[in-house]
Automatic annotation (TrEMBL):
Gene3D superfamilies: 3.10.20.30. Pfam families: ThiS (PF02597). This is Sulfur carrier protein ThiS. Transmembrane segments: none annotated.
């Protein structure tokens, strides 16, 4: 299936979870995820499956100021 991750199209297996999508983009430490503009709690990443054309935003916290 095709989803959009941080504005870029990506192919994932049908039934892929948010956790699987994040693993393909970055290490999961210090990361927040929104699917179709809704924040997904980290505890729900494994149980939250993705659908065709879903939009994910994977945000990484960085130190600085």
């Amino acid at each position: 299936m095709r989803v959009i991750v941080n504005g870029e199209p990506r192919e994932l297996p049908d039934g892929a979870s948010v956790a699987e999508a994040v693993a393909g983009v970055t290490a999961s430490a210090g990361v927040a995820v929104a699917v179709n503009d809704e924040v997904v709690r980290r505890s729900a990443w494994d149980a939250t499956t993705l659908n065709e054309a879903d939009r994910l935003e994977v945000l990484t916290a960085v130190q600085g100021g």
